[in-house]
Amino acid sequence: MAEPAASPGWSVTVLGVAQDGGLPHPGCECPRCSAARDGRRRREKVACLGLTDGRRAFLVDATPDLAEQMHALGAAIASAKASAGDPSAPRVRTPDGVLLTHAHMGHYVGLAWLGKEALGARGFTIHGTPRMGDFLATNAPWRALFDEGRATFDARSPVDLGGVVAEAIPVPHRQEFTDAVAWRIRGPRGSVLWLPDIDSWDAWDLDVRDVVASVDVAFLDATFYADGELGHRDRREIPHPRVVETMRRLAGLGDRVRLIHLNHTNPLWDDPSPAAALGFRVAREGETFPI
Ligand SMILES: [Zn+2]
Ligand SMILES: [Zn+2]
Ligand SMILES: [Zn+2]
After folding, report:
1. Where are the domains of the chain?
2. What's the rounded Cα separation, in Å, for the pair 181 and 288?
3. 104, 101, 92, 16: which is closest to 57 by C-alpha?
4. pTM for this one?
5. Over the stretch 107-144, which tens digit does the pLDDT of each residue have?
6. Which end of the chain is more exposed for a tag (fewer CB within 10 A), N or C?
């Protein structure tokens, strides 16, 4: 009798790295966006993390690129299962659940792909804060996901996803529609933090050094590299810690940090990135970590 195929175990896979507007960014004709638009440089999907043990699959944030990221998640599962001796996995995967950080467009509008007009998914769970749940349940078109019986909302934190535990950690971030959280996810083999958006490290009631030190890999807001990067948009309108400051605060912890949520203006897109010399790395789409 054949041995049953080994489970590949839980892992996370980076499915996108860009800020909400993606790269190329709408309305921008900077050299980087132009190159992405006409194929001289790769396009970049909006920041998203996939989480799977080969049987269950979750997305952390529902981005405008969800349709493609669902396929990338399936491909990641297929390759993990193949390396564990099971070549049977399909190369596309509807998520069992989506963990949302907040209601800015890069982080939740991808839910639309799961609705009636596109995938018509059923039986999935949306995880987020109670305010996030209220926002979705009381606003069209999102409430149709619940009215049509497609999704249920789960505001528990920490919540056991079936062998890994996800914890929503409140973060200060412009609260136009909902509050905002980072997700800390712990599994039997490791732990990660997903923190795509925060107004500033000083405004947080936690010390970012302690939080980063509490996980194996911390995916952190790296929207803007330094002051003076924005030009046409006032930086007070879009507060984020600058990466130069983040690296200074996290000196010595660079090996556990992956920078995400890069704006199209960010010089970290260039290779080699200006952070590399200081021991910090930009997350790479397709990069996988066991947890
Ligand atoms: Zn964002
Ligand atoms: Zn641009
Ligand atoms: Zn945001």
Report:
1. 11-283
2. 22
3. 92
4. 0.95
5. 999 999 999 999 999 999 999 999 999 999 999 999 99
6. N
Query: In whole angstroms, what is the distance from residue 119 CA to residue 116 CA?
Result: 6
For ligand 2, a single-atom ion, the residues with CB < 5 A are 25, 28, 30, 33, 264
Distance 173 CA to ligand 3 centre (A): 7
What's the rounded Cα separation, in Å, for the pair 225 and 234? 15
Cα(17) to ligand 2 centroid in Å equals: 15
**Closest C-alpha to 58, from 25, 95, 89:** 95
Please choose, from the candidates 167, 257, 173, the residue with its C-alpha nearest in 3D space to the C-alpha of residue 209. Answer: 257
Q: From the CA of 169, how far away is ligand 3's center (Å)?
A: 15
Omega prior to 272 cis, within 30 of 0: yes
**184 touches 74 (CB < 8 A):** no
How many whole angstroms separate alpha carbon 102 and alpha carbon 174?
Answer: 10
